[in-house]
Each structure stands twice: as C-alpha cells, then as structure tokens.
C-alpha cells in the first residue's frame, strides 16, 4: 500500500564527477604548510552544502546525520560530529552527530593533521609544523572560556570542543562547526585576534548552533547574540577595558562601512531582504554582527543588570535549543521573562521601538557606553590627534616618545585604521610616520603589518614598497592579500601589483588567484581580463572557465571592498 511505502527506508547514491563544488575545497600539497600531502575541507555556510550532499539547505530545517568516510593511509579525517571511530583494517572513519543541526553546519576536513590535547574536552588539530605553536597559544585557554560560557548560558551541549587549523586557502577566518571549530592558520601569529575569534566561535555553541536563525534574512540572531556572548565572556575573563577596546575597534569599522554605503543602504537593516537568486552570504556584513550586538546590548540595558539578562539568555537557550527561531521568538520570550518591562511598553519607546531596530536602515539606534575602555582608547586617540597637528617636527619628536610596542594589538590596529581613514596624508607626514614606526611595525603580527602596508600603498610611499612585496610573497590567504591588491589596483602602483602577482600566483588557491585577476583587470578596458601564467590554471586542475567562489565582499566591483573595512569579522 502507498501509505506503507512512504515509510520504507531508501538510499541515494551520489557520484562526484567534478572538483568545482562550491562547498568542497581540494588543495594540492603545495597549498598546505607542510607541502607533504593533499588536503580537503568543506565550507557550507551559507548555502554551499547543497553541492556537498542532498539536503534541505535552509537553517529552518535541522537533522542528525551519520557519515562513513574512506581515506588513503596517513590522511586524518575529521567531521563536525559528536561521535567518531576509525577502522584501521578498512581505512574507514565513522561519524555520527546525535543532535539535530542545519545543513550548513555539516563539515569535513582531511589531510596531514595531528592532535594535541589542550584541555579536558578539547584538542587542537594542525599540520605537524604548526602543532606546537597552536598548542602553546591555546593550552588551558579554551577550557577557561567554555567554563565561563557555561556559567553564563548553561551547559555546553556538544561534548567535545576541538579546533582544527586549516591552510591559508580557507576562505574566511573561522567557522563554528559543532564540536570542531575550523580556523585559518594565518591568524595564529596575531594573539588577540586569535583569542577573540575562538571565543566568538565558542559563543556560537549556544547562539547559532544550538539556537539557529530560521531564515538567512535574520542572521543577526546568530551573529549579534554570539558577539554579545563573546564580549560577556571576554569581560569575565579579561576585564571590561579590553572588551571595550575590542568593541570600539569593531564599531569604528561599522561606522566606516556605514559612511561608504550610506545611511539608507538596505543591507544595514537587521531584517535584510533577501532577493531571489542572491547568495545569503552577500548579507554577511558588519551590521549583522555589530548592529545586531548593539540591539542585544540595548535589551540587556533594559534589564538594568547584565546578569539578569544572562539569566534570560539561559532560559532562551533551554527553551529553543536544537530548533530554529525568528526575531519575534526572541523578543516575545524577552518580554515574557521580564513582565515588568512588558508593562512599561519598552518595545514601543519613541525612537527605540523594537520594530525600528529591526527594520530601519542606518547605524544602531543606541550604542554601548565604552568609557570603561578609556585607559586603552584614550592614548590611541591622543596619538592620532598628535599626527594631525602642526608643526610636524614637534609632532615627530613628541610621538617618538610614545612606545607603541607596549600597546595591545587592537590599540595599534585602531591607530592605523584612523590614519587609513585620513589617507592620502601629506607626503611629509607619511615620511615621518615611516621613520617613526616602519621598522617597528614590520616586526609585529600580520594584522598590524597589513594596515601599515595599506598606508604605504594608499599614500604611494615608494621607500617602503619593498615591504609590500615581501609581505605578498609570504601570504597565501585572502584576508592578507585581497585588501592590498584592491589598494594597489586603483592607482599608479598597478604595474607593481601585476609584477608581484605574476611572481606569486602559483602559490595561491585557484579561487583566490582568479579573484585577484579580476581585481587587477579593472580599468584595463571593456572585456579585458588578465590571463594567468601559461599552464597555471591547468596545473591546479582548474579549467579556464571554472567559476571562482566569490563570497560577498571578495567580489570585485561590489559597493564595498575589504580595503575599506579593515576588519576581520
């Protein structure tokens, strides 16, 4: 009978015939750090996993999953699963995720990976040449963050919290795959950015993974809440001053983006409208994170005490865990949890209506008081103001007495971002800045160096151009290449950019290579596109017509470029 047939188990067999599925990234050994073995990873967010396996590729649908993976000897396979086992005789891995997850959180990685324990329920996985660095940076730290998060938001539900460090071809900074956070290895040298990025992914274990936005048009329900939870964790762990500094740095970037887009930009809405045929990744921007954070922070302020709001979020997670929600679910739960606020009609306060928060374009309706970070932000503002003062000879003498080598990374990055906002600067100012800081900054981490080198490029400062070349020769990730190529391609330094690109393109992933080609092709005339070096695409296993995976702000010609944001979100 048909009613019985409807419940019979069935099997779907897929045979992969191409290597250009957007979710699956195949790397030859030359694109890894160790250059020893091939590497593969998947990236499902937002709607790429439909090219990986048949699924309902929407965050509104969740399910458990099991997987069986066969791999060559010596290749370690990992997945975002709560249970795993390995049969050495068969060379087969078995995985099972016991909790329902949306399709985009199913993830796989395989390569020359080795483990090291960093806590009672955490280990790092990395290529052998990176393992000791990754271990030393995170040993004991992750358990501290997990324990703090549990105290704030309730038990960690996913069993293990492991981290795998991926080669520089990984197209984003980090991804919150349950049980197994993916993070780009390039961030290892920037300690403060590493800490913030991992804590943000830890926060997603509650907000995003356990309770998920039902529609991509409300990604702030994941990113805004995770950012708020991340900052509660950093406040508890590192103090309010550091959290306020990091928040000021991010809100500075938000206002930079706002200035570029205009206050009436539709993508600045928290409930952004997703037009048919548009990749939801194009809605991922700083508004998703920072305007969402500001709304959540505003809700916490209405309670009068962050700890009261923590209690609400614990109840919210307990009620909706392993399901998907819309904004109204969050706001109704909030007003039910605080009936006195409902009686005061806080959702309808003039100018701060909840509906306006969700649907108005422009900047946040209210921002947090960051005065607790003034001990860290005031010196940055003072030094920036100093460099815009007259006369220059006195400025340089005074500035050289300020030892920025003792600053936090976020302080130095904020200072350089302010200088970038003012570029192009008078040439004598750039010369003096270089004399003061160039050698010092060149010894700092990549987040600092790329900002200084963007200053060099935007101000056509030729004496430091060799530092730009050396940086691009050593970098293979989009986060440290695209911003510089975007700057280089807009002015007189384009021939220099072409020369460096042709010398280094063989070390870049084909997707990144094609993106940079498109950036450098702009302005060369209609229909003109740079050719790769003969055989470069062929050697990488890519045809000339293979489409690159262009994620939102990576695509050239969009309204917003990475070089205008100066933030790794």
TrEMBL record:
- Protein name (database record): Aminopeptidase RNPEPL1
Family of this protein: Belongs to the peptidase M1 family.
Q: Which cofactor does it need?
A: Zn(2+)
Q: Name one GO molecular function term.
A: aminopeptidase activity
Classification via PANTHER family: AMINOPEPTIDASE RNPEPL1, LEUKOTRIENE A-4 HYDROLASE
Q: SMART domains, from UniProt?
A: Leuk-A4-hydro_C
Keyword tags: Aminopeptidase, Hydrolase, Metal-binding, Metalloprotease, Protease, Zinc
One matching Pfam family, short form? Answer: Peptidase_M1
Specify the superkingdom. Answer: Eukaryota
SUPFAM superfamilies noted in UniProt? ARM repeat, Leukotriene A4 hydrolase N-terminal domain, Metalloproteases ('zincins'), catalytic domain
Q: Where is the Peptidase M1 leukotriene A4 hydrolase/aminopeptidase C-terminal domain?
A: 375-520
């Amino acid at each position: 009978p048909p009613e019985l047939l409807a419940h019979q188990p069935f099997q779907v067999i897929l045979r992969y015939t191409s290597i250009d599925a957007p979710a699956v990234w195949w790397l030859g050994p030359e694109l890894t750090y160790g250059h020893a073995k091939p590497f593969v990873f998947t990236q499902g967010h937002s709607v790429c996993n439909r090219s990986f396996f048949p699924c309902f590729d929407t965050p509104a649908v969740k399910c458990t999953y099991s997987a069986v993976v066969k791999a060559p000897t010596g290749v370690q396979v990992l997945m975002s699963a709560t249970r795993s086992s390995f049969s050495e005789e068969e060379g087969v891995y078995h995985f099972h995720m016991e909790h329902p997850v949306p399709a985009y959180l199913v993830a796989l990685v395989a390569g020359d990976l080795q483990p090291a324990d960093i806590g009672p329920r955490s280990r790092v996985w990395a290529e052998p040449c990176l393992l000791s660095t990754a271990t030393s940076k995170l040993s004991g730290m992750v358990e501290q963050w997990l324990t703090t998060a549990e105290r704030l938001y309730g038990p960690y539900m996913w069993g293990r919290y492991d981290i795998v460090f991926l080669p520089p071809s990984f197209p984003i900074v980090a991804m919150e795959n349950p049980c197994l956070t993916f993070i780009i290895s390039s961030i290892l040298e920037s300690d403060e950015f590493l800490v913030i990025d991992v804590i943000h992914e830890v926060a997603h274990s509650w907000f995003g993974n356990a309770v998920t936005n039902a529609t991509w048009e409300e990604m702030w329900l994941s990113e805004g809440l995770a950012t708020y939870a991340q900052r509660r964790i950093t406040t508890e762990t590192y103090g309010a001053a550091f959290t306020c500094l990091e928040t000021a740095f991010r809100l500075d970037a938000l206002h930079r983006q706002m200035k570029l887009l205009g206050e009436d930009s539709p993508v600045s809405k928290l409930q952004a409208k997703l037009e048919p045929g548009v990749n939801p990744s194009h809605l991922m921007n700083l508004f998703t994170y920072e305007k969402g954070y500001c709304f959540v922070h505003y809700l916490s302020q209405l309670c009068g005490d962050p700890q009261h709001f923590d209690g609400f979020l614990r109840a919210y997670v307990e009620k909706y865990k392993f399901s998907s929600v819309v904004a109204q679910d969050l706001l109704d739960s909030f007003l039910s949890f605080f009936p006195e606020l409902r009686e005061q009609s806080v959702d309808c306060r003039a100018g701060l209506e909840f509906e306006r928060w969700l649907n108005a374009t422009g900047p946040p309706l209210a921002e947090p008081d960051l005065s607790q970070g003034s001990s860290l932000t005031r010196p940055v503002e003072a030094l920036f103001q100093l460099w815009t003062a007259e006369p220059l000879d006195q400025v340089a003498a005074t500035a050289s007495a300020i030892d920025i080598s003792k600053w936090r990374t976020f302080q130095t990055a904020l200072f350089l971002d302010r200088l970038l906002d003012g570029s192009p600067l008078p040439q004598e100012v750039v010369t003096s800045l270089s004399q003061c800081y160039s050698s010092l900054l060149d010894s700092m981490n990549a987040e600092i160096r790329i900002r200084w080198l963007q200053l060099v490029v935007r101000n056509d400062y030729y004496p430091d151009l060799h530092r730009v070349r050396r940086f691009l020769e050593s970098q293979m990730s989009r986060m440290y290449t695209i911003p510089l190529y975007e700057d280089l391609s807009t002015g007189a330094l384009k021939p220099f950019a072409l020369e460096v690109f042709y010398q280094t393109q063989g070390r870049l992933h084909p997707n990144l290579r094609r993106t940079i080609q498109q950036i450098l092709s702009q302005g060369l005339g209609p229909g003109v596109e740079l050719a790769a070096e003969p055989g470069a695409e062929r050697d990488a296993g890519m045809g000339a017509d293979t489409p690159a995976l262009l994620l939102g702000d990576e695509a050239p010609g969009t309204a917003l470029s990475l070089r205008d944001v100066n933030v790794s979100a």
